[in-house]
Amino acid sequence: MLASASKYALKIVIYLAKNKKSGKIGGKKIAEDLQLSAPFVGKVLQPLAHSGIVKSTKGPHGGFVLASEPNELPLLNIIQIFEGENVFKECLLYSCNCKDHIEEHGEHCRIHEEIAPAREKLLESLRTRTVADFLNNEENNESLNSILDEENSSAFH
């Protein structure tokens, strides 16, 4: 369900929050510490900086820092940068969002009523859970890692 860029953005933002006291951290250091490709980390950091999630400073003493407090940053805000405003609103049976399906067919798809509560619960969780929730709580970190893990269930690929 989530693109790789969204998954890595969450990991990068949580990493920056955990290392906030270190000050600016370069893209290469982030990539090295998270064991990610430096060019891909750079591509993920650009939209994060453009959207104001992180601050970017160029130059020999430059790097990236979180632009706000971790408790003020819902996970959904990060995901929407890469997935768009309609994240999780796409119909599971057809290649359109639910609103478009209704306009075209006059009704929801056959499984909409069953899926809608789960979708809303997921969106609400991503709206209310912040980066701060994943800083010191090992159980939350394991939960997020299981969602983001590349080898995990296909529901998030």
TrEMBL record:
Q: Which residues form a coiled coil?
A: none
- Record organism: Balneicella halophila
Q: What name does this protein carry?
A: BadM/Rrf2 family transcriptional regulator
Task: Read off the InterPro entries from this record.
Answer: TR_Rrf2-type_CS (IPR030489), Tscrpt_reg_Rrf2 (IPR000944), WH-like_DNA-bd_sf (IPR036388), WH_DNA-bd_sf (IPR036390)
Q: GO MF terms on file?
A: DNA-binding transcription factor activity
Provide the organism lineage as a comma list. Bacteria, Pseudomonadati, Bacteroidota, Bacteroidia, Bacteroidales
A Pfam entry, by short name: Rrf2
Superkingdom, natural source: Bacteria
Q: Name one GO cellular component term.
A: cytosol
SUPFAM superfamilies with a match to the protein in the record: Winged helix' DNA-binding domain (SSF46785)
